[in-house]
Specification:
The protein starts with 9 loop residues before the first helix and ends in a 12-residue tail after the last helix. The strands form six sheets. Strands 1, 2, 3, 4, 5, 6 and 7 form a seven-stranded mixed beta sheet that branches. Strands 10-9-8-14-25 form a five-stranded parallel beta sheet, covered by helices on one side. Strands 15-24-16-17-20 form a five-stranded parallel beta sheet, with helices on one face. The chain is α/β, with parallel strands linked by helices. The radius of gyration is 26 Å and the shape is globular. 31% of the residues lie in helices and 23% in strands. α6 packs parallel to α19 and α13 crosses α15. It has 19 helices and 25 strands. This is Flavin-containing monooxygenase. GO terms for molecular function: flavin adenine dinucleotide binding; N,N-dimethylaniline monooxygenase activity; NADP binding. InterPro entries: Auxin_biosynth/cation_transpt (IPR050982), FAD/NAD-bd_sf (IPR036188), Flavin_mOase-like (IPR020946), Rhodanese-like_dom (IPR001763). Pfam families: FMO-like.
């Protein structure tokens, strides 16, 4: 059961915010005290700078893992265990960073950005200070992140290649991509955004990586989806490492356009990619490396690599169909949303889309706009928010026009531990629901079943914990309200018949095509197919929140040495690809220390 900490409201703190508050002085004084206690190894002194119900989230800098410590006792144990090992030093306030924020009338904090060093790395942190009744301002929420390894900076900016290249570039690229006389250090399975992101990060750190993509072209994983597919995240949230989208880019990216961008990205970043290729197997050996077999250009290539990165999405990118009696006798067509291409394939047919989240709404809209009779079958309630109102509340001003640089935006976003944010998101979900009142009331009148998201916390927690359960409305809701997309949700499906669907209440519906927009399978299934049952059995759960509120399995130790899972939307992969690359680089340079991991 998730622990939901209380928010540090002014009433709970029995505190007020002075009108003559000197924000910079408060921040500088706190950072100075924090640095002094750290230097002295005074754990009690450090903990005394925090309120009792506080949070410390660390990404690799102090734990070589993703951890969130909740409450003073947990933070005290963490610091006692780790401070002597990591040697935290050179803590300094980042100039211009302190700001007093009032997210709600009863909540106030000073947001402070600082920099620090450890024995092997350079890091940055964000701390939020709240007022107290008698002890001044104390930390409520601390975030520390590993930004770089000492002595191994990314080869970007002033460190880029300065040598002129006269007529050799093309042949050099051909030799590099061929891997004729060398093994890659890292094999990346999948050439979507997640695979390309981590390949670009590794390249910047001087690590040789090969990306293997089964499709004929980079970007085909988007081109081959249903034609109506479009990103529902705004462009400011979606930039890729080192190469942001141009300022002319639309706010919401069509899938075909994104596919072309990924192909362009791989070329511009000079990533080593094999297309129309398949990783047949990747098995760990006794030497601590991986024996890899790849089919490419009709022949087999064999490598020994040190790391294998799966970048194949949830469920390995493959849909999983539910099973119902009678599916074998149904004379129509059954397919998963991942197999659906275009609405015109089913012109003149009667279509049911099973599911009521993003893909279901997109596909149903596409069918309606092409004159196809379509019904959404809703099995359970859904959370709905509009892009117009929801994103303006959730994304602005961090991921928005005129917002902070993307690298800082990512750290600001990550600095809110997921469990700490539940009550904040519960408040926000109510505000968005009021903004979207007309749409939501219209859906309810139509009979569409709504909820407020996982734990009534709206979009974010549903995404973290379930990777679904919501629809970010870009127009389908009004089509449902107007009856243009039909709705069925008054009974569960009991079976398929030869001509359609039968429901538990006795209703029957004639159907020609059933599209299951019911999500994807277990990501570990894809690992098992390539790496075998022995590896699959050891592989940790991937996605969903653990007891600390951290995502299971992704971006770090997966339970099998040298095995990684790169997963998430464009923003998550942009940010966490650096974490994956830093861990691999640290291993290759002998710098990775013992992980301070949560008990399984």
């Amino acid at each position: 059961m998730m622990q939901v900490p209380e928010l540090p409201t002014l009433d709970r703190l029995n505190a007020t915010v002075p009108e003559d508050l000197d924000v910079h002085k408060v921040a500088a004084t706190w950072i100075e005290s924090f640095a002094s206690f750290v230097e002295a190894g005074n754990v009690d002194g450090i903990v005394g700078l925090f309120i009792e119900v506080s949070h410390w989230r660390d990404m690799l800098a102090l734990t070589w893992d993703f951890r969130t410590f909740i409450g003073a006792p947990s933070i005290r144990k963490f610091l006692s265990d780790r401070l002597p090992t990591v040697k935290l030093t050179n803590i300094r306030l980042r100039e211009g960073s302190p700001a007093l924020l009032r997210p709600y009338p009863d909540i106030a904090w000073i947001s402070v950005v600082f920099d620090f060093e450890t024995d092997i790395g350079l890091g940055s942190g964000i701390v939020r200070l709240v007022p107290t009744a008698n002890d001044g301002w104390k930390a409520h929420c601390m975030y520390t992140n590993l930004d770089d390894l000492k002595g191994f900076p990314e080869q970007i900016g002033s460190l880029r290649n300065h040598a002129p290249n006269h007529g050799k570039w093309e042949s050099e690229r051909q030799r590099a991509t061929a891997f004729e006389n060398e093994d890659p250090v890292v094999l990346i399975i999948g050439g979507g955004h997640s695979g390309l992101d981590v390949a670009a990060r590794l390249k910047a750190l001087g690590i040789r990586a090969l990306v293997v993509e089964r499709n004929a072209r980079i970007g085909d994983n988007w081109r081959n989806r249903y034609q109506a597919l479009c990103l529902h995240d705004p462009v400011w949230y979606d930039h890729m490492p080192y190469l942001p989208f141009p300022p002319t880019w639309p706010v919401y990216t069509p899938a075909l356009k994104l596919g072309n961008w990924l192909e362009h990205y791989a070329e511009v970043m000079e990533l080593d990619v094999w297309t129309s290729s398949t990783v047949n197997s990747a098995r760990p050996n006794d030497a601590g490396t991986w024996d890899v077999v790849i089919t490419t250009d009709g022949s087999e290539r064999r490598f020994k690599v040190k790391h294998v990165v799966f970048a194949t999405g949830l469920g390995g990118g493959e849909g999983k169909l539910p099973t119902y009696p009678g599916m074998d006798v149904f004379k129509g067509q059954i397919l998963h949303s991942t197999q659906h291409k275009r609405a015109t394939d089913h012109a003149g047919k009667k279509v049911v889309v099973v599911g009521a989240c993003t893909s279901a709404h997109d596909i149903a809209t596409d069918y309606y706009e092409h004159g196809v009779d379509v019904t959404i079958y809703q099995r359970s309630s859904s959370y709905v928010l509009s892009t117009k109102n929801g994103w303006a509340r959730i994304m602005r001003p961090v991921y928005w026009e005129g917002g902070p640089p993307t690298e800082l935006a990512d750290r600001l976003n990550a600095s809110f531990p997921h469990l700490m944010s539940i009550q904040l998101n519960q408040r926000l979900a109510k505000i968005i629901a009021e903004d979207d009142k007309d749409i939501l009331e219209g859906l309810r009148k139509r009979g569409f079943r709504l909820n407020m998201g996982t734990m009534d916390a709206g979009f974010s927690l549903s995404a973290w914990d379930r990777a679904g359960g919501y629809y970010i409305d870009v127009g389908a809701s009004q089509l449902i309200i107007d009856g243009k997309i039909k709705l069925k949700n008054d009974s569960q499906i009991s079976e398929f018949t030869e001509t359609g669907l039968k429901f538990e209440n006795g209703d029957e519906m004639p159907v020609d095509v059933v599209v299951f927009a019911t999500g994807l399978g277990d990501a570990r299934d894809g690992v098992r197919k390539v790496c075998g049952d022995a590896v699959g059995d050891k592989c940790k759960k991937i996605w969903g929140l653990n007891e600390e509120g951290e995502i299971n399995g992704a971006w770090r130790d997966l339970g099998v040495p040298g095995l990684w899972y790169m997963i998430g939307n464009l923003a998550l992969c942009r940010f966490h690809s650096k974490h994956v690359a830093l861990q691999i680089k640290a291993m290759e340079e002998g710098l990775l220390g013992e992980r301070y991991s949560a008990a399984d």
